[in-house]
Amino acid sequence: MKLKIATLPGDGIGPEVVGQAQKAVDAVCRRFHHEVEFTFGLVGARAIDECGDPYPEKTHQLCMQSDAVLFGAVGDPRYDNNPTSPVRPEQGLLAIRKKLGLYANLRPVEAFASLVEKSPLKKELVDGADFLCIRELTGGTYFGEKGRKDNGNAAYDTCIYSRAEVERILRLAFDYAGRRRRHLTVVDKANVLETSRLWRQIAQELEAEYPDIEVDYMYVDNAAMQLIRCPKFFDVLVTENTFGDILTDEASCISGSMGLLASASVGEHTSLFEPVHGAYPQAAGKNIANPVAAILSAAMMFEYAFGLMEEGKAIRRAVAASLEKGYVTEDLAAGAAAHSTSEVGDWIIENDHE
Fold first, then answer.
1. pLDDT tens string 224-249
2. Per-residue model confidence (pLDDT) at position 333
3. Is 130 annotated in the active site?
4. Do residues 120 and 253 make contact, with C-beta atoms less than 8 angstroms apart?
5. Which of 142, 161, 210, 304 is catalytic?
6. Are 232 and 123 in contact, with CB atoms under 8 Å apart?
7. If you count Cβ atoms within 10 Å of the first and of the last residue's Cβ in the chain, which end, N or C, has fewer?
8. DSSP string, 175-219
9. pTM, rounded to two decimals
10. Cα angle: 23, vertex 28, 29; to 5 degrees
11. Which of 232, 249, 313, 346 is labelled catalytic?
12. Does residue 146 carry a catalytic annotation?
């Protein structure tokens, strides 16, 4: 198979971790006799610096013409510390999601057996946790009308969802629950928010079409607590954009490090695969960032974009072996010898076998 992949490393540690993911893809393609073509695109702060746009049209056309997008991270302290900046790196990621129609973000959360002791949660709570978070990506507060009034002394952000937007993400969640343990948790704030009441109404209507799926409903504040109290309760969790942004970052602590979590964004056009962590500018250029999330994102790319399950499994086996052997970066070393980003990437590539 010929794979055409757009690589958008972005800012901070993005280029370093995406570089390791590319090496993993190359290794797997050699082993399984695929042909792969990587094409670079600008995004984020680097794109602003070079052309004034965090998601240039040239990059968008590259994504549209590719089979999948391998993405790093966006963000830069220059913009974080300037709340009045008219253009920001993060707008590039929002634009990608909107223009590619990437309405669903899939974030698997799994407790690796060799790392349960490193989780901030008790071993008995974490061991065996394995669930999928599905976050709506192109609606809600992040995309609603926003602005200032009263001479800039009041601000507003509008949360709006249509029936079509809610129904398509809920149907996706029901479908994924059917592939897993047939348990779906819908997270909202229906006791307060009208948009949440629409989410709950539509979910209840859809229940009749999926009689084999057990459905429960949870307010977002309770869900935030239950993710810590009993993460093994969850199988598939679905929620709106802002709630999903917060809950998925919270869920990252279950695995012991945000540097382990991969994600896929899927929808109408080319799917995008990215590590959950951000740009982490403090580590940029130091060769210390954990590349595992980016490498596992490449595994998801094989599985979700191309249906190449064995190729994805090969990467996952190699990653699990690196964690089991303790060949890890400083965020997981815990007093033991830490290895660099590139060393961990090389180890995983060299151990990509049964």
1. 999 999 999 999 999 999 999 999 88
2. 84
3. no
4. yes
5. 142
6. no
7. C
8. HHHHHTTSEEEEEE-TTT-HHHHHHHHHHHHHHTT-TTSEEEEEE
9. 0.87
10. 95
11. 249
12. no
